[in-house]
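anyone seen this seq b4? input:
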Amino acid sequence: MRKFIRHPSDIPIEFLIKELSLKDREYLNDISFGGLSFRSRAAVEVSAVIQITIPFLKPEFQCQAIVKWCHRRGDGFDVGVAFDDQEEAFKTRMVEQICHIEHYKREMLEQEGRALSGEEAAAEWIKRYAASFPAVEVSH
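predicted toks r here
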């Protein structure tokens, strides 16, 4: 069993920057309480307002965020965004767990040949990893 939870990197996301009319589909690098990062083929300007969609979730998860950094890596860019309000951050915390469960479901199919339902994957993931899932402290 792993000591730390591996962040899923196989979750597709879509992003839209209205000012640039730039819309693209990429893959999540990681997601946390305050924001997320993803891979992009194009550079994205720091402080740009960006619309993020995670289309595999039903209903789709959508949020607005602000680009905090953009670093060249290989033939593309890693982009980090922060959520601009606490409500978005809380919703993202749930999405973070769902992404981990979906990743676990895919991993079990690839590694063990087990096709788990969403409920089965969630139950197993919670049993294995929930205790080590980082807690979030919120100040009021």
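The beta strands are 12-17, 22-31, 35-40, 49-54, 61-73, 76-83. The chain has one domain: 1-132. kinda curious what u guys think
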